[in-house]
Amino acid sequence: MRRALKTSVAMQEYTIDAGSSIVVRGNSAVLRCIVPSFVKDFIKVTSWLQDGNFNIFPSRDGDGKLHMLPTGELVVVNAGTADSYSTYQCRVTHRLSGEARESTGVARISVSEAHGITPPRFSERTLSIEARRDELVVLPCFAEGDPPPDYRWEFGGSPVPEDEQRYTSGGLLIIPRARPHDSGRYTCTASNPAGNSRLDVSLLVSWPLSARVSPALLTAGLGQPAQMTCTTTGHPVTMVMWMKNGQSLSSLRGGMSGEVFHLASVSREDQGMYQCFVKNEKDMAQGTAELRLGGELGLNSVLSRIWGTWLKGRWSCGLEVSWDEPVFYQEHGGHGSRDGGAAAWR
């Protein structure tokens, strides 16, 4: 019901607009596609159109002047008077319907002159960016100041080392193939002779979740201990939950410690199907296993002797088994007997 309602809302009619930017000469202008909140989760900005005929697509480094980020923003580097004459439209695709649209309005850049030396200033203090494993990630850092500021990136309190895995370009920190270990808080500091300012960027790199329970089939005797392990992959993992036959194990006996479920003494009620669920805010996976009872009726099922004899024109057969706990059994056709730790049937 909730999924159907969400899909119904997402398929409502909507319009897209492009937001203009006012920037001090020499700084970078950032243009954003304006999407209604009720459909935002289903819209992907695919490109920008300059002056109605020049397409700009997401890229790692841009062309030195225009750079569309994977998150949809368009950056116009070192904005000057010539940039104020261009118009910009964004293009989007609806993830469910596949429909493509252009913004109804156009964005423009207004370039103003600086009035004396001013320290760097960010339009926002924090950013949160999510990406999937192996995707291109570009973390933006654009402050306005005069003179235009320089930028420095830190991760975990230390300068970000520049190599093939992470490097900077102007105010951008570029991660060509994001990994879960790239997740965390990054700090960008913008500085010029008038002062400095800081921006915190939180990055979460997700990886599809999976879960596998081992052993997949566990046979345990009555009164014996049993243990199952749930091996998970993916990122982030915010919860691991065990269930038995669809019922949460938090209300059943047994001990849980994250990915391990342990039974100190197996009883008949413990047999059944077990599920391990691993989840985060956007993904969920499960693994399953079955617990079966071994040694039915408490017997060890150790065959001691089978014999057969010919008596008066018919075969007489018998067997003996032993067990390590008291049992009850029913006679069928012949007679049963018990002698200490053994039972015989003829």
UniProtKB/TrEMBL annotation:
It is found in: Membrane. GO terms for biological process: cell-cell adhesion. PANTHER family: NEPHRIN, V-SET AND IMMUNOGLOBULIN DOMAIN-CONTAINING PROTEIN 10-LIKE 2. The keyword Plastid does not apply. It holds the Pfam family Ig_3. InterPro entries: Cell_adhesion_signaling, Ig-like_dom, Ig-like_dom_sf, Ig-like_fold, Ig_sub, Ig_sub2. Residues 12-107, 120-206, 208-292 form the Ig-like domain. This is Ig-like domain-containing protein. It is a single-pass type I membrane protein. The keyword Glycoprotein applies. GO terms for molecular function: cell adhesion molecule binding. Coiled coil: none annotated. GO terms for cellular component: cell-cell junction; plasma membrane. Keywords: Disulfide bond, Glycoprotein, Immunoglobulin domain, Membrane. Its main location: membrane.
